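Hi Y.,

Following your request, here is the sequence exactly as I used it, all 57 residues.
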Amino acid sequence: MSKYDFPQDLSAAQIALHETRAAYERYAKDLPWSAEPMPGWEGEKQLHSVYRSGKAV
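Below is the corresponding structure, written out as C-alpha cells. Let me know if you'd prefer a different format.
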C-alpha cells in the first residue's frame, strides 16, 4: 500500500485516465499524420539546438 491513502474515486479516475490514454495511443498509431495526403517536411535547424522538427515523407 502507498504511504498515503488516496480516496478510492480518485484512484479509480487515475486508472481510467491511464487506460483511456493507452487506448488513444493504440488508435492513433494507425492513423496517418494528416487527414489529407500531404508530403512530409523538415523544419529548419534552430539556434543552439540540433533538433529538427518534421514529418516523414
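The helical segments are 8-29.

Thanks again,
Q.
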